[in-house]
Design goal:
Elements lengths: L20 E2 L2 E2 L1 E2 L10 H14 L9 H20 L7 E4 L2 H16 L5 E5 L8 H10 L2 E5 L9 H9 L3 E7 L11 H10 L3 E5 L11 H4 L3 E5 L10 E5 L1 H6 L10 E4 L4 E3 L13 H17 L1 H20 L4 E4 L10 E6 L4 H9 L3 E2 L1 E3 L4 H7 L4 E5 L6 H17 L3
Parallel strand pairs: 3-15, 5-6, 5-7, 7-8, 8-9
Antiparallel strand pairs: 1-2, 4-10, 9-10, 11-12, 13-14, 14-17, 16-17
Helix pairs in contact: 1-9, 2-9, 3-4, 5-6, 9-10, 10-13, 11-13
Bound molecules: pyridoxal-5'-phosphate.
Pyridoxal-5'-phosphate binds next to helix 3.
Length: 412
């Protein structure tokens, strides 16, 4: 076996679900890229809000409603600070998918025409493909892709060449790929796009949970992420936007809360960020997310990154010793996030996931909502193991043992 990674964080006990046994085995959770587990502190913050402070926001004058208002807006300020963003340009959505749709509908429909192009990459999650496809079809614009090379990385030369064509209005890309693990050079890509007059959107779904992200320093026009992958509850996502652009954009969804006043035929819009939050927002979920980012900040995002990088190095090293197993994406752990997607000769990825699941090891198999990338890789599906702050080298060992047992069942 390769040397066990230095792993300074010992946080498993903070996550109640990890005390469970599955199929008679201790639960080994290696599916954090799909959703993270939640520390007790988040579960308690959510429960406490519902138990003690629940009322609708922005509508009540009684004390309880004011408590709910304060809790929601404090959560916004906490979440914004975590990402280095301003609270007034931090919009709560349902998830990152909705955040990207918000931009595609609102910014896209008012800015794109038949002469224009949207540039994305071959490694995008469907959440950062389909909204642009729909938008481009509707506006007669063109959707182009940056290619992924054999290492699972993008080429800045190709980016420059695409931008030099002069028609790219939007560059949208994942900060960290949910399949390859690749960490894209976001700051560099944003700077080049800005210089070429293109607006940028970064899908930070996989980045924010595992590395320091400073939205202001990155200078993206839009940065979107999702709470449930960052130790927070489901049902809450985040869009940080550049004020000047958000102010010019028409609303996305319309109805209550997002208006200043409504007449029989006309309405005017609320200020930022509420202009983009129609209807009752995810109040308790935002409070839970604030507790999650407080917990992450308490650890320190540099330490989170160091922990997950060490585990990923150990995981890639360990997986490489399994006969017939191929890991996709950059081989170096410092160029990738905390996940490894792989194929095993003679085994379908679904069989791999099912077999290791019998030993209580949770990994994912499938196209990971990235079918265009699967085609580039020449596979229909992969298995994917991904780590979180709560994982330990022993979890990787459990995966390797379960893989060996699975290969034996198939006589490999
Ligand atoms: C890179 C990336 N983008 C977008 C998403 C979609 O996240 P959500 O379902 O929370 O909107 C995911 C989730 O797997 C992802 O990994």
């Amino acid at each position: 076996m390769p040397p066990v990674a230095e792993s300074p964080l010992r946080l498993r006990a903070d996550f109640p679900i990890l005390a469970r046994r599955v199929n008679g085995h201790p639960l080994v959770y290696l599916d954090s890229s799909a959703t993270s587990q939640k520390p007790a502190i988040v579960i308690e913050a959510l429960a406490e809000h519902l138990r003690e402070h629940n009322a609708n926001v922005h509508r009540g004058v009684y004390s309880l409603a004011q408590e709910a208002d304060a809790a929601f807006e404090q959560a916004r300020a906490r979440v914004a600070a975590f990402a280095g963003a301003d609270a007034t340009t931090t919009i709560f959505t349902k998830n990152v998918t909705e955040a990207i749709n918000l931009v595609a509908y609102s910014w896209g429909r008012s800015h794109l025409g038949p002469e224009d192009a949207v540039l994305i990459t071959q490694m995008e999650h469907h959440a950062n493909i389909v909204p642009w496809q729909v938008l481009c079809r509707e506006r007669g614009a063109t959707l182009r892709y940056l290619e992924v090379d054999e290492r699972g990385e993008l080429s800045l030369e190709q980016l420059d060449a695409e931008l030099a064509r002069g028609d790219v209005r939007m560059l949208a890309f994942a900060h960290v790929s949910n399949v390859l693990g690749t960490i894209n050079p976001a700051a560099e890509m944003i700077a080049r796009a800005r210089a070429a007059g293109a607006v940028t959107l970064v899908d930070g779904a996989q980045a924010v949970p595992q590395m320091p992200v400073d939205v202001s320093a990155l200078e993206a026009d839009f940065y979107a992420w999702t709470g449930h992958k960052a130790l927070g509850p489901t049902g809450v996502g985040v869009l940080h936007g550049r004020r000047e652009i958000l102010e010019q954009m028409p609303p996305f969804l319309t109805g209550g809360d997002m208006i200043a006043s409504v007449d029989l035929q006309e309405a005017t819009w609320n200020e930022l960020p509420w202009k983009f939050e129609a209807g009752t927002p995810p109040v308790a979920e935002a409070v839970g997310l604030a507790a999650a980012v407080e917990y992450l900040d308490g650890i320190g995002m540099q330490r989170v990154r160091a922990h997950e990088q060490a585990l990923t190095a150990y995981m890639i090293d360990s997986l490489a010793r399994v006969p017939g197993l191929r890991v996709v994406g950059p081989p170096e752990a410092d160029r990738r996030g905390g996940l490894a997607s792989f194929t095993v000769d003679g085994l379908h990825p679904h069989d791999v996931a099912e077999l290791v699941g019998r030993s209580g090891v949770c990994i994912r198999a499938g196209h990971h909502c990235a079918q265009p990338l699967m085609r580039c890789l020449g596979v229909g599906a992969t298995a994917r193991a991904s780590v979180g702050v709560y994982n330990q080298p022993a979890d990787i060992d459990a995966l390797i043992e379960a893989l060996a047992a699975g290969r034996e069942i198939f006589g490999l």
